[in-house]
UniProtKB/TrEMBL annotation:
Transmembrane segments: 6-28, 49-66, 72-90, 102-122, 142-166, 178-200, 257-277, 289-307, 319-339
Primary role: Putative sodium-dependent amino acid/proton antiporter.
Main location: membrane
GO cellular component: membrane
Name assigned to this protein: Putative sodium-coupled neutral amino acid transporter 11
Entry coiled-coil feature ranges: none
Signal peptide (residue range): none
Source organism (scientific name): Papio anubis (Olive baboon)
Amino acid sequence: MKQAGFPLGILLLFWVSYVTDFSLVLLIKGGALSGTNTYQSLVNKTFGFPGYILLSVLQFLYPFIVDPENVFIGRHFIIGLSTVTFTLPLSLYRNIAKLGKVSLISTGLTTLILGIVMARAISLGPHIPKTEDAWVFAKPNAIQAVGVMSFAFICHHNSFLVYSSLEEPTVAKWSRLIHMSIVISVFICIFFATCGYLTFTGFTQGDLFENYCRNDDLVTFGRFCYGVTVILTYPMECFVTREVIANVFFGGNLSSVFHIVVTVMVITVATLVSLLIDCLGIVLELNGVLCATPLIFIIPSACYLKLSEEPRTHSDKIMSYVMLPIGAAVMVFGFVMAITNPQDCTHGQEMFYCFPDNFSLTNTSESHIQRTTQLSILNISIFQ
């Protein structure tokens, strides 16, 4: 919302969710047309070994470079401990279906976190000054916003794994599942984005939790829940990365020993990367434009166009022709803009409105006395 403009951001969220829904169904249709049951085998049959290697790199990098953790006191110890205690054991599962209940818990926690963000939009929002351009329709960084939204919706890299875990998997059953999932997801995203942006407007950080003050116990509980969701969902991402390694280097099968070795290596290196990165915004942008965008917009469309024998006027083909150039544009221009104009990052520092003495330095219409009084009320009544 901060990058795209509030009204345009809402429209883009709906658009990206529609494209995601379409491409996920298209992906499974492509698998049915080619007689393949993995994303890699689909691309390999469609575009040969070069396409197979390109997709393998994208699938490997997407879950590998993500670190949706926040900056806490002692974060290195917490990340290390949670990785060894929870993430690694869960990542050792061989069957992705066994992670279904774990993902359900993560979904419940996400709903709880959303409730906390909504509550703070009501109690905290009126005390935060609004930036001057808060309500403009569109902003020049909208392409970067598309990258972040693509990151939020990407699940193509494990779609075949989930599809194969269904009882009696069919394209029709998969389509119904995807439609329902995307509708739920887009409304969760809209509520998160809207409540977060209405609270902080132009001060919104790449990691929304960095906007809240440290003495807010309710939000601290939300941070804890968010950390748990990361622990519970990362094994699914590790599952994909491990499968890529198995397909590229081991012919698709890993012995019990190599299964453990590869899993430990992936988790270890990913954890080391996460310990070095404390800015979530730039990670979301780069991951979105470099990995999520081709996996959503470009590759499913390209595979379907090459495999399908439908006429060019068929609706699926028309949509695929539209998605290809748009995806390429978002990928190129989004990458350039992410490098030249990255999101703000506080590196774990408190925001200015958490300190009444600094609040008078902001350019708002209220008087110094009003601002100080508001922050005193905010600190006493809201955060205690």
